[in-house]
Each structure stands twice: as C-alpha cells, then as structure tokens.
Amino acid sequence: MSKRKQRAPEFKAKVALEALKGEETAAELASRFGVHPTMIHQWKRALLEGASGVFERGGRKKPEIDEEQVKELHAKIG
Description:
It holds the Pfam family HTH_Tnp_1. InterPro entries: Transposase_8 (IPR002514), Trp_repressor/repl_initiator (IPR010921). By secondary structure, the protein is mainly alpha-helical. The protein is built from four helices and no strands. The termini are far apart.
C-alpha cells in the first residue's frame, strides 16, 4: 500500500499556471509533470478561485495571536 505524494504549493502553482496558459492540454501537462489530469484541473480551479485574494486591501493577513499562549511563554522565560 503506497502513500499519496505530497506536492509543494510552488509545484502546484507552476502546473496550474501552465494549464492557464492553454498552450498544452491537461493530458500533455499530466504526462510532463507526472500527475493526473484531474489534479491539474483542481489546482487550476483553486488558483482561479484564490487569485482575487492577492489583490485584497490590507496586504497579508496578520497572524492570530493566542494571548494565553503568550502569557505561558512569558512565564517560562521569566
């Protein structure tokens, strides 16, 4: 029984961008990158759905800070 391959987000973006160009079919891209054509369609759809987030106001989202965890860490370091 084999595990599924975990692909890096950079790889997924690269393949999805190639698919968006439309110069090759999904089958050709799948053969070239060694992935299933269905995955290419999913990554392309995810890229199109998430692309608007790049242009949202406020830039990057601020990380959420857990105040309780901060207090515990401050207590540990004195």
